[in-house]
Protein backbone atom coordinates (compact mmCIF):
# COMPACT_ATOMS: atom_id res chain seq x y z
CA UNK A 1 0.00 0.00 0.00
CA UNK A 2 1.29 3.48 -0.84
CA UNK A 3 1.56 5.77 2.17
CA UNK A 4 1.09 9.53 2.06
CA UNK A 5 4.69 10.20 3.05
CA UNK A 6 6.29 7.81 0.58
CA UNK A 7 7.70 9.02 -2.76
CA UNK A 8 5.86 7.99 -5.87
CA UNK A 9 7.02 4.66 -7.27
CA UNK A 10 8.33 4.91 -10.80
CA UNK A 11 5.83 3.42 -13.21
CA UNK A 12 6.68 2.48 -16.78
CA UNK A 13 4.67 4.34 -19.35
CA UNK A 14 4.62 2.93 -22.79
CA UNK A 15 4.99 5.66 -25.32
CA UNK A 16 2.55 5.47 -28.20
CA UNK A 17 3.93 4.98 -31.64
CA UNK A 18 4.58 8.26 -33.34
CA UNK A 19 2.98 9.06 -36.65
CA UNK A 20 5.93 9.40 -39.01
CA UNK A 21 3.94 11.60 -41.37
CA UNK A 22 3.09 14.15 -38.68
CA UNK A 23 5.47 16.86 -37.42
CA UNK A 24 6.99 16.29 -33.95
CA UNK A 25 4.52 17.20 -31.24
CA UNK A 26 1.58 17.38 -33.65
CA UNK A 27 -0.34 14.55 -32.02
CA UNK A 28 0.17 15.96 -28.50
CA UNK A 29 -0.94 19.42 -29.66
CA UNK A 30 -4.10 18.04 -31.21
CA UNK A 31 -4.88 16.05 -28.06
CA UNK A 32 -4.33 18.99 -25.71
CA UNK A 33 -6.43 21.39 -27.82
CA UNK A 34 -9.35 19.34 -29.09
CA UNK A 35 -10.03 17.21 -26.01
CA UNK A 36 -10.64 20.20 -23.68
CA UNK A 37 -12.90 21.74 -26.34
CA UNK A 38 -15.01 18.60 -26.38
CA UNK A 39 -15.07 18.59 -22.57
CA UNK A 40 -16.15 22.25 -22.45
CA UNK A 41 -19.00 21.76 -24.91
CA UNK A 42 -20.39 18.72 -23.10
CA UNK A 43 -20.20 20.57 -19.81
CA UNK A 44 -21.88 23.63 -21.34
CA UNK A 45 -24.73 21.44 -22.54
CA UNK A 46 -25.19 20.08 -19.01
CA UNK A 47 -25.69 23.61 -17.65
CA UNK A 48 -28.50 24.40 -20.09
CA UNK A 49 -31.25 23.67 -17.60
CA UNK A 50 -29.59 25.62 -14.79
CA UNK A 51 -29.13 28.85 -16.77
CA UNK A 52 -32.58 28.63 -18.39
CA UNK A 53 -34.22 27.66 -15.12
CA UNK A 54 -36.64 30.57 -14.73
CA UNK A 55 -38.04 30.28 -18.26
CA UNK A 56 -38.34 26.49 -18.07
CA UNK A 57 -40.11 26.56 -14.72
CA UNK A 58 -42.49 29.27 -15.87
CA UNK A 59 -43.39 27.55 -19.16
CA UNK A 60 -43.81 24.04 -17.76
CA UNK A 61 -44.99 24.93 -14.24
CA UNK A 62 -42.24 22.94 -12.53
CA UNK A 63 -41.83 22.84 -8.77
CA UNK A 64 -38.44 23.06 -7.07
CA UNK A 65 -38.08 19.31 -6.57
CA UNK A 66 -39.01 18.56 -10.19
CA UNK A 67 -36.51 21.15 -11.39
CA UNK A 68 -33.79 19.69 -9.16
CA UNK A 69 -34.43 16.24 -10.62
CA UNK A 70 -34.13 17.76 -14.09
CA UNK A 71 -30.74 19.22 -13.18
CA UNK A 72 -29.62 15.88 -11.76
CA UNK A 73 -30.68 13.74 -14.73
CA UNK A 74 -27.69 14.48 -17.06
CA UNK A 75 -25.30 13.99 -14.14
CA UNK A 76 -26.82 10.65 -13.14
CA UNK A 77 -26.78 9.31 -16.70
CA UNK A 78 -23.25 10.63 -17.18
CA UNK A 79 -22.05 8.89 -14.04
CA UNK A 80 -23.42 5.56 -15.21
CA UNK A 81 -21.83 6.01 -18.64
CA UNK A 82 -18.38 7.12 -17.48
CA UNK A 83 -16.74 3.83 -16.49
CA UNK A 84 -18.00 1.74 -19.47
CA UNK A 85 -17.03 4.51 -21.90
CA UNK A 86 -13.58 4.85 -20.35
CA UNK A 87 -12.98 1.11 -20.74
CA UNK A 88 -14.34 1.25 -24.28
CA UNK A 89 -11.96 4.11 -25.06
CA UNK A 90 -9.07 2.01 -23.77
CA UNK A 91 -10.15 -0.78 -26.10
CA UNK A 92 -11.02 1.02 -29.35
CA UNK A 93 -9.49 4.47 -28.86
CA UNK A 94 -10.58 7.67 -27.14
CA UNK A 95 -11.04 9.58 -30.40
CA UNK A 96 -13.72 7.19 -31.66
CA UNK A 97 -15.64 7.26 -28.38
CA UNK A 98 -15.46 11.05 -28.09
CA UNK A 99 -16.62 11.45 -31.66
CA UNK A 100 -19.56 9.10 -31.14
CA UNK A 101 -20.65 10.75 -27.88
CA UNK A 102 -20.52 14.25 -29.35
CA UNK A 103 -22.69 13.18 -32.27
CA UNK A 104 -25.01 11.38 -29.86
CA UNK A 105 -25.97 14.49 -27.89
CA UNK A 106 -26.92 16.51 -31.00
CA UNK A 107 -30.45 15.07 -31.44
CA UNK A 108 -31.10 15.58 -27.73
CA UNK A 109 -30.15 19.27 -28.00
CA UNK A 110 -32.65 19.59 -30.83
CA UNK A 111 -35.27 17.72 -28.77
CA UNK A 112 -34.91 20.16 -25.84
CA UNK A 113 -35.74 23.04 -28.16
CA UNK A 114 -38.99 21.28 -29.15
CA UNK A 115 -40.02 19.73 -25.82
CA UNK A 116 -43.44 20.65 -24.45
CA UNK A 117 -43.64 18.29 -21.46
CA UNK A 118 -41.55 17.66 -18.38
CA UNK A 119 -41.05 13.99 -19.26
CA UNK A 120 -39.57 14.98 -22.62
CA UNK A 121 -37.03 17.22 -20.91
CA UNK A 122 -36.13 14.43 -18.48
CA UNK A 123 -35.49 12.00 -21.33
CA UNK A 124 -33.53 14.62 -23.26
CA UNK A 125 -31.46 15.30 -20.14
CA UNK A 126 -30.81 11.58 -19.91
CA UNK A 127 -29.47 11.69 -23.46
CA UNK A 128 -27.26 14.69 -22.71
CA UNK A 129 -25.79 12.72 -19.83
CA UNK A 130 -24.52 10.11 -22.25
CA UNK A 131 -22.13 12.81 -23.44
CA UNK A 132 -20.13 12.03 -20.29
CA UNK A 133 -18.69 9.21 -22.35
CA UNK A 134 -16.79 11.96 -24.13
CA UNK A 135 -15.40 13.21 -20.80
CA UNK A 136 -14.22 9.76 -19.72
CA UNK A 137 -12.86 8.88 -23.15
CA UNK A 138 -11.09 12.23 -23.38
CA UNK A 139 -9.42 11.61 -20.04
CA UNK A 140 -8.05 8.29 -21.28
CA UNK A 141 -7.09 9.90 -24.60
CA UNK A 142 -5.09 12.68 -22.95
CA UNK A 143 -3.46 10.28 -20.46
CA UNK A 144 -2.28 7.95 -23.23
CA UNK A 145 -1.39 10.38 -26.02
CA UNK A 146 -0.59 13.57 -24.11
CA UNK A 147 2.97 14.88 -23.73
CA UNK A 148 4.70 12.45 -21.35
CA UNK A 149 6.92 15.11 -19.74
CA UNK A 150 3.95 17.36 -18.97
CA UNK A 151 1.16 14.90 -18.33
CA UNK A 152 -0.11 16.86 -15.32
CA UNK A 153 -0.29 20.07 -17.33
CA UNK A 154 -2.14 18.29 -20.14
CA UNK A 155 -4.60 16.74 -17.67
CA UNK A 156 -5.02 20.14 -16.01
CA UNK A 157 -5.86 21.76 -19.35
CA UNK A 158 -8.30 18.96 -20.02
CA UNK A 159 -9.99 19.39 -16.66
CA UNK A 160 -10.21 23.12 -17.29
CA UNK A 161 -12.87 22.22 -19.85
CA UNK A 162 -15.22 22.72 -16.89
CA UNK A 163 -15.09 26.35 -18.00
CA UNK A 164 -17.82 25.32 -20.42
CA UNK A 165 -20.17 26.25 -17.58
CA UNK A 166 -18.89 29.82 -17.89
CA UNK A 167 -19.65 29.73 -21.61
CA UNK A 168 -23.26 28.99 -20.78
CA UNK A 169 -23.34 31.77 -18.17
CA UNK A 170 -22.24 34.28 -20.81
CA UNK A 171 -24.14 33.21 -23.90
CA UNK A 172 -27.38 31.49 -22.96
CA UNK A 173 -29.05 34.41 -21.14
CA UNK A 174 -28.39 36.66 -24.15
CA UNK A 175 -29.80 34.15 -26.63
CA UNK A 176 -32.78 33.40 -24.41
CA UNK A 177 -33.57 37.07 -23.97
CA UNK A 178 -33.30 37.81 -27.68
CA UNK A 179 -34.91 34.73 -29.23
CA UNK A 180 -36.55 32.77 -26.41
CA UNK A 181 -35.27 29.83 -24.40
CA UNK A 182 -36.05 27.30 -27.15
CA UNK A 183 -33.32 28.81 -29.31
CA UNK A 184 -30.66 28.44 -26.62
CA UNK A 185 -30.05 24.65 -26.98
CA UNK A 186 -29.59 25.08 -30.73
CA UNK A 187 -26.71 27.46 -30.02
CA UNK A 188 -24.49 24.48 -29.20
CA UNK A 189 -25.38 22.29 -32.15
CA UNK A 190 -22.94 23.86 -34.60
CA UNK A 191 -19.95 24.00 -32.18
CA UNK A 192 -20.50 20.37 -31.16
CA UNK A 193 -20.61 19.28 -34.79
CA UNK A 194 -17.56 21.43 -35.57
CA UNK A 195 -15.44 19.88 -32.79
CA UNK A 196 -16.60 16.41 -33.83
CA UNK A 197 -15.47 17.20 -37.38
CA UNK A 198 -12.08 18.43 -36.16
CA UNK A 199 -11.60 15.25 -34.15
CA UNK A 200 -12.45 13.18 -37.21
CA UNK A 201 -10.09 15.13 -39.48
CA UNK A 202 -7.05 15.82 -37.31
CA UNK A 203 -7.00 13.43 -34.34
CA UNK A 204 -6.07 9.77 -34.42
CA UNK A 205 -5.93 6.78 -32.11
CA UNK A 206 -3.02 4.52 -31.27
CA UNK A 207 -3.08 1.04 -32.72
CA UNK A 208 -5.54 -1.05 -30.70
CA UNK A 209 -3.11 -3.87 -30.06
CA UNK A 210 -2.41 -5.81 -26.89
CA UNK A 211 -4.42 -7.93 -24.50
CA UNK A 212 -6.82 -5.14 -23.60
CA UNK A 213 -7.97 -4.80 -27.19
CA UNK A 214 -8.56 -8.52 -27.52
CA UNK A 215 -11.11 -8.67 -24.69
CA UNK A 216 -14.73 -7.73 -25.12
CA UNK A 217 -16.07 -4.66 -23.37
CA UNK A 218 -18.22 -6.82 -21.07
CA UNK A 219 -15.17 -8.87 -20.07
CA UNK A 220 -13.10 -5.73 -19.48
CA UNK A 221 -15.88 -4.23 -17.38
CA UNK A 222 -16.23 -7.40 -15.32
CA UNK A 223 -12.48 -7.58 -14.71
CA UNK A 224 -12.48 -3.90 -13.80
CA UNK A 225 -15.24 -4.42 -11.25
CA UNK A 226 -13.23 -7.22 -9.68
CA UNK A 227 -10.20 -4.94 -9.46
CA UNK A 228 -12.27 -2.40 -7.53
CA UNK A 229 -11.95 -4.61 -4.47
CA UNK A 230 -8.40 -3.26 -4.16
CA UNK A 231 -8.58 -0.30 -1.76
CA UNK A 232 -5.49 1.32 -3.28
CA UNK A 233 -7.59 2.28 -6.31
CA UNK A 234 -9.96 4.30 -4.11
CA UNK A 235 -7.51 6.29 -2.00
CA UNK A 236 -7.20 9.35 -4.24
CA UNK A 237 -10.44 8.78 -6.13
CA UNK A 238 -12.68 9.56 -3.14
CA UNK A 239 -11.22 13.02 -2.62
CA UNK A 240 -11.26 13.74 -6.34
CA UNK A 241 -14.90 12.65 -6.56
CA UNK A 242 -15.87 15.09 -3.81
CA UNK A 243 -14.22 18.07 -5.50
CA UNK A 244 -15.53 17.13 -8.94
CA UNK A 245 -19.08 16.51 -7.74
CA UNK A 246 -19.14 19.63 -5.56
CA UNK A 247 -17.97 21.82 -8.43
CA UNK A 248 -20.50 20.42 -10.90
CA UNK A 249 -23.36 20.80 -8.43
CA UNK A 250 -22.35 24.34 -7.48
CA UNK A 251 -22.01 25.29 -11.14
CA UNK A 252 -25.64 24.29 -11.61
CA UNK A 253 -26.94 25.72 -8.32
CA UNK A 254 -25.10 29.03 -7.95
CA UNK A 255 -26.96 31.10 -10.59
CA UNK A 256 -30.32 30.38 -8.98
CA UNK A 257 -28.93 30.81 -5.46
CA UNK A 258 -27.40 34.19 -6.23
CA UNK A 259 -30.58 35.32 -7.96
CA UNK A 260 -32.67 34.44 -4.89
CA UNK A 261 -30.19 35.71 -2.30
CA UNK A 262 -29.37 39.08 -3.84
CA UNK A 263 -32.54 39.61 -5.90
CA UNK A 264 -30.71 39.56 -9.25
CA UNK A 265 -32.07 38.70 -12.67
CA UNK A 266 -30.80 35.26 -13.66
CA UNK A 267 -28.48 36.61 -16.36
CA UNK A 268 -26.81 38.92 -13.81
CA UNK A 269 -26.46 36.16 -11.21
CA UNK A 270 -24.96 33.89 -13.89
CA UNK A 271 -22.25 36.50 -14.51
CA UNK A 272 -21.54 36.68 -10.78
CA UNK A 273 -21.14 32.89 -10.74
CA UNK A 274 -18.62 33.04 -13.60
CA UNK A 275 -15.52 33.91 -11.48
CA UNK A 276 -16.02 30.71 -9.49
CA UNK A 277 -15.76 28.55 -12.62
CA UNK A 278 -12.78 30.56 -13.90
CA UNK A 279 -10.98 30.04 -10.58
CA UNK A 280 -11.57 26.28 -10.72
CA UNK A 281 -10.28 26.08 -14.30
CA UNK A 282 -7.14 28.13 -13.55
CA UNK A 283 -6.52 26.11 -10.40
CA UNK A 284 -6.65 22.83 -12.33
CA UNK A 285 -4.02 23.97 -14.82
CA UNK A 286 -1.74 25.19 -12.03
CA UNK A 287 -2.27 22.08 -9.91
CA UNK A 288 -1.51 19.74 -12.80
CA UNK A 289 1.60 21.69 -13.82
CA UNK A 290 3.01 21.76 -10.29
CA UNK A 291 2.23 18.07 -9.74
CA UNK A 292 4.48 17.29 -12.72
CA UNK A 293 7.40 18.55 -10.63
CA UNK A 294 6.46 17.87 -7.02
CA UNK A 295 4.81 15.11 -5.03
CA UNK A 296 1.56 16.79 -3.98
CA UNK A 297 0.21 13.76 -2.17
CA UNK A 298 -0.19 15.67 1.11
CA UNK A 299 -1.68 18.73 -0.62
CA UNK A 300 -5.15 17.17 -0.53
CA UNK A 301 -5.16 17.64 3.25
CA UNK A 302 -4.39 21.35 3.03
CA UNK A 303 -6.82 21.91 0.16
CA UNK A 304 -9.58 20.01 1.96
CA UNK A 305 -9.01 22.00 5.16
CA UNK A 306 -9.11 25.33 3.28
CA UNK A 307 -12.28 24.38 1.40
CA UNK A 308 -13.82 23.25 4.70
CA UNK A 309 -13.24 26.71 6.20
CA UNK A 310 -14.74 28.39 3.12
CA UNK A 311 -17.82 26.15 3.25
CA UNK A 312 -18.24 26.92 6.96
CA UNK A 313 -18.27 30.66 6.28
CA UNK A 314 -20.54 30.30 3.22
CA UNK A 315 -23.03 28.32 5.33
CA UNK A 316 -23.94 31.37 7.39
CA UNK A 317 -27.27 32.86 6.37
CA UNK A 318 -28.14 36.46 7.25
CA UNK A 319 -29.20 36.59 10.89
CA UNK A 320 -30.12 39.04 13.62
CA UNK A 321 -28.99 38.60 17.24
CA UNK A 322 -30.73 40.28 20.17
CA UNK A 323 -28.55 40.95 23.24
CA UNK A 324 -29.91 42.20 26.55
CA UNK A 325 -27.46 44.91 27.62
CA UNK A 326 -27.29 46.98 30.77
CA UNK A 327 -28.72 50.00 28.96
CA UNK A 328 -31.30 48.11 26.97
CA UNK A 329 -31.55 45.60 24.19
CA UNK A 330 -28.84 45.52 21.54
CA UNK A 331 -29.52 44.24 18.06
CA UNK A 332 -26.75 42.89 15.84
CA UNK A 333 -27.33 41.88 12.22
CA UNK A 334 -25.02 39.90 10.00
CA UNK A 335 -25.37 39.65 6.23
CA UNK A 336 -22.48 38.76 3.96
CA UNK A 337 -21.96 41.49 1.36
CA UNK A 338 -21.87 40.42 -2.25
CA UNK A 339 -18.15 41.15 -2.58
CA UNK A 340 -17.36 39.02 0.49
CA UNK A 341 -19.50 36.14 -0.75
CA UNK A 342 -17.83 36.36 -4.16
CA UNK A 343 -14.35 36.47 -2.64
CA UNK A 344 -15.03 33.29 -0.66
CA UNK A 345 -16.38 31.55 -3.76
CA UNK A 346 -13.33 32.47 -5.85
CA UNK A 347 -10.87 31.42 -3.13
CA UNK A 348 -12.69 28.12 -2.65
CA UNK A 349 -12.85 27.56 -6.42
CA UNK A 350 -9.11 28.11 -6.82
CA UNK A 351 -8.40 25.62 -4.02
CA UNK A 352 -10.81 23.05 -5.49
CA UNK A 353 -9.19 23.42 -8.91
CA UNK A 354 -5.72 23.01 -7.40
CA UNK A 355 -6.88 19.83 -5.72
CA UNK A 356 -8.53 18.47 -8.87
CA UNK A 357 -5.49 19.10 -11.06
CA UNK A 358 -2.94 17.65 -8.64
CA UNK A 359 -5.10 14.65 -7.71
CA UNK A 360 -5.65 13.62 -11.32
CA UNK A 361 -1.89 13.80 -11.92
CA UNK A 362 -1.30 11.64 -8.85
CA UNK A 363 -3.93 9.16 -10.03
CA UNK A 364 -2.11 8.94 -13.35
CA UNK A 365 1.24 8.56 -11.59
CA UNK A 366 0.04 5.71 -9.39
CA UNK A 367 -2.20 3.97 -11.94
CA UNK A 368 -0.87 4.84 -15.38
CA UNK A 369 -1.55 1.32 -16.67
CA UNK A 370 -5.12 1.38 -15.32
CA UNK A 371 -6.06 4.95 -16.14
CA UNK A 372 -9.27 3.92 -17.88
CA UNK A 373 -10.45 2.02 -14.82
CA UNK A 374 -9.38 4.47 -12.11
CA UNK A 375 -10.17 7.62 -14.09
CA UNK A 376 -13.56 6.22 -15.07
CA UNK A 377 -14.20 5.35 -11.42
CA UNK A 378 -13.33 8.92 -10.36
CA UNK A 379 -15.77 10.41 -12.88
CA UNK A 380 -18.45 7.88 -11.93
CA UNK A 381 -18.26 8.66 -8.21
CA UNK A 382 -18.04 12.39 -8.88
CA UNK A 383 -21.02 12.27 -11.22
CA UNK A 384 -23.14 10.31 -8.74
CA UNK A 385 -22.26 12.76 -5.97
CA UNK A 386 -23.09 15.70 -8.24
CA UNK A 387 -26.43 14.11 -9.23
CA UNK A 388 -27.33 13.67 -5.56
CA UNK A 389 -26.70 17.30 -4.65
CA UNK A 390 -29.43 19.28 -6.51
CA UNK A 391 -32.32 17.35 -4.86
CA UNK A 392 -30.49 17.46 -1.52
CA UNK A 393 -30.03 21.23 -1.83
CA UNK A 394 -33.74 21.71 -2.46
CA UNK A 395 -34.90 19.30 0.24
CA UNK A 396 -32.39 20.71 2.72
CA UNK A 397 -33.68 24.20 2.08
CA UNK A 398 -37.26 23.00 2.64
CA UNK A 399 -36.43 21.08 5.83
CA UNK A 400 -33.95 23.53 7.40
CA UNK A 401 -35.53 26.67 5.99
CA UNK A 402 -32.19 28.24 5.00
CA UNK A 403 -30.91 29.17 1.55
CA UNK A 404 -27.40 28.07 2.54
CA UNK A 405 -28.41 24.45 3.24
CA UNK A 406 -26.42 23.37 0.17
CA UNK A 407 -23.16 24.69 1.63
CA UNK A 408 -24.00 23.01 4.94
CA UNK A 409 -24.43 19.65 3.24
CA UNK A 410 -21.16 20.05 1.34
CA UNK A 411 -19.43 20.92 4.63
CA UNK A 412 -20.76 17.72 6.24
CA UNK A 413 -19.80 15.65 3.17
CA UNK A 414 -16.25 17.02 3.19
CA UNK A 415 -15.90 16.23 6.91
CA UNK A 416 -16.92 12.64 6.14
CA UNK A 417 -14.44 12.52 3.23
CA UNK A 418 -11.62 13.77 5.45
CA UNK A 419 -12.46 11.18 8.11
CA UNK A 420 -12.13 8.46 5.46
CA UNK A 421 -8.78 9.96 4.43
CA UNK A 422 -7.65 9.99 8.05
CA UNK A 423 -8.71 6.37 8.64
CA UNK A 424 -6.83 5.32 5.51
CA UNK A 425 -3.75 7.23 6.63
CA UNK A 426 -3.79 5.63 10.09
CA UNK A 427 -4.28 2.18 8.61
CA UNK A 428 -1.20 2.69 6.43
CA UNK A 429 1.06 3.62 9.37
CA UNK A 430 3.27 0.96 11.00
CA UNK A 431 1.81 -0.41 14.26
CA UNK A 432 4.41 1.36 16.42
CA UNK A 433 3.40 4.77 15.00
CA UNK A 434 -0.36 4.46 15.60
TrEMBL record:
One of its GO terms (biological process) is nitrate assimilation. It is a multi-pass membrane protein. The keyword Lipid metabolism does not apply. It holds the Pfam family MFS_1. Its main location: membrane. Keywords: Membrane, Nitrate assimilation, Transmembrane, Transmembrane helix. Residues 28-428 form the Major facilitator superfamily (MFS) profile domain. InterPro entries: MFS, MFS_dom, MFS_trans_sf, NO3_transporter. Residues 1-22 are annotated as: Disordered. GO terms for molecular function: nitrate transmembrane transporter activity. Belongs to the major facilitator superfamily. Nitrate/nitrite porter (TC 2.A.1.8) family. This is NNP family nitrate/nitrite transporter-like MFS transporter. The lineage of its organism: Bacteria, Pseudomonadati, Pseudomonadota, Gammaproteobacteria, Oceanospirillales.
